[in-house]
Specification:
5 helices, five-stranded mixed β-sheet
Length: 148
């Protein structure tokens, strides 16, 4: 059996809070186990949001978060990947691609017409990964922080 076939993907549960916190930290968004638990509960209460955990042999090795929302400009639902991360010690095993397949399946079942993702300009490896998986450059993403 190949590593790729040993990967399982499922919706995150409250008991995954420690793993979610660890993986978000890898992505550069540290949070405590308690904060991760709150985030999991928030996502689970909204049927248009999903938080997926990828596992190999029962050990969390990646996550993907997405939401489906209506776009006034497109006149249709879009799926947006808010986070996708693979544990560094599991890189290169097909986990990111498997998570993307699951995300795309959720998006299709929800009737979304496209999947969007934003990756920091500094994450050149992420850009290459997404382009290799069929994503193309889109509009520039600008942000303004509120309350800082």
């Amino acid at each position: 059996m190949s590593v790729a076939s040993a990967i399982t993907v499922r919706e995150a549960a409250l008991g995954d809070a420690c793993d979610v916190a660890t993986l978000l930290d890898v992505l550069g968004y540290p949070c405590t186990r308690e904060e991760a638990g709150d985030r999991i509960l928030h996502v689970r209460q909204d049927p248009r949001q999903h938080l997926l955990i990828a596992e190999i042999d029962g050990m969390a090795c990646g996550l993907a978060a997405l939401d489906v929302r209506f776009s006034i400009t497109r006149g249709a639902d879009l799926a947006r990947i808010n986070a996708l991360v693979v544990s560094p010690h599991c890189a290169g095993q097909g986990i990111g691609r498997r998570l993307l397949r699951e995300v795309e399946g959720i998006a299709r079942r929800a009737g979304a017409v496209r999947v969007e993702v934003t990756a920091s300009a500094a994450r050149e490896g992420a850009h290459a990964f997404y382009q290799c998986c069929g994503f193309s450059d889109g509009s520039q993403h600008l942000i303004k922080r509120l309350g800082d």
